[in-house]
Amino acid sequence: MGRDGTIAIIGAGIAGAAAARRLHDAGHRVVVLDKGRGPGGRMATRRGPDGLRFDHGAQFFTARDPRFAACVEDWTARGIAAPWGGPHRSVGAPGMSAPARDLLAGIDLSCGRAVGRLARAGDGWRLEEADGTALAHGAAFSRVLLTCPSPQGLALLAGCGQDLPGLADVRYAPCWTLMLAHDGPPPFEEPARQDDDPAAVFAWIARDGTKPGREGGGTVVAHAAPAWSRANLEDGADAVAERLVAALQAIVPLGTVRHAAAHRWRYAQVERAVGTPCLFAPETGLGYAGDGCLGPRVEFAYLSGLALAERVLGQAEP
Q1: Superkingdom of the source (predicted)?
Q2: Where are the beta strands (DSSP E) in 100-227?
Q3: H or E, element range at 46
Q4: What CATH number did the domain enclosing 130 receive?
């Protein structure tokens, strides 16, 4: 495939945003699509009643690689990220999606419509919804980069008879997340508690309102442990919320619960990664990036998106 042509990126999480920013800055036309209501992927913030906000996905990020560290330093200087919860930990400000939104500034982004099918268009690709309705105004793309969870990427590839070897090896742990608001004193002193016991109900409990830029100190986000989440994966959100509230009240004092809701992340945390920075097939123009490539960290997703963009740019050189 030649140098010219618009590039589609499916998924507006941190991997997709990193790839989009690098390609855009290199002079390529990029279109990013995401089925969610806004960018960020699992770096997400949920709005509740009465102005409540919960970071119900990724809770923080760390930076070890100098490329990501420089990005975090820039975000911090501009108020898009801030330290929280321990040494070397940062969060987006005023919500976890802020870094992805910043990376996608000025880039063509379409949210709220799910890509259901990839269809050949000459030597490129068209994107369609599951019912065949054309997306992105029916435009043809020279390359399509998948940055959604690997099972969703595999379904798109299977639908057009393609494959990216290694992608099927990725495994995820699910997670039920409890978003809770309460009246009364803080349930514990520290910003968050972590429990590595696989038999525990909760793997993580955070006083979400303690994060910089948040309002409402009485908000708690609790991630159920993988085993508990798997055992209750197909149950209804209301029933799960009720069980998780009871389990949390047995651990910490909550006072009066004003709001409680549960969200299911079917593909929450990578348990087995491909082990390579990205996947790319130059002959088809299809590629994959995300935490499924390098492992379950925001930084790894960013670096994977960057690596995929570099593969595309390397192919595009004359």
Answers
A1: Bacteria
A2: 108-111, 117-121, 124-128, 143-146, 171-183, 192-194, 202-207, 219-224
A3: strand 46-47
A4: 3.50.50.60
Least-confidence region, from 47-56, 197-206, 256-265? 47-56
- Are residues 139 and 25 located together in one domain of the fold? yes
The set of residues, in sequence order, having a beta carbon less than 8 Å from that of 166 and lying 6+ positions away, is 274, 275, 276, 279
38 alpha carbon, distance to own chain's centre: 11
Instruction: Tell me: do 115 and 16 sit in the same domain.
Output: yes
Give me the pLDDT at residue 51, please: 87
Record the pTM: 0.95
Pairing, β 53-54 against β 81-83: unpaired
Q: How confident is the model at residue 4 (pLDDT cuts 50, 70, 90)?
A: low
Same domain, 157 and 184: no
Chain-centroid distance of CA 277 in Å reads 17
Segment 124-166, tens digit of pLDDT: 999 999 999 999 999 999 999 999 999 999 999 999 999 999 9
Identify whether 61 is part of a domain.
Answer: no
- What angle do the packed helices 66-77 and 298-316 form, to 10 degrees? 110
Task: Please check whether residue 227 lies inside any domain of the structure.
Answer: yes
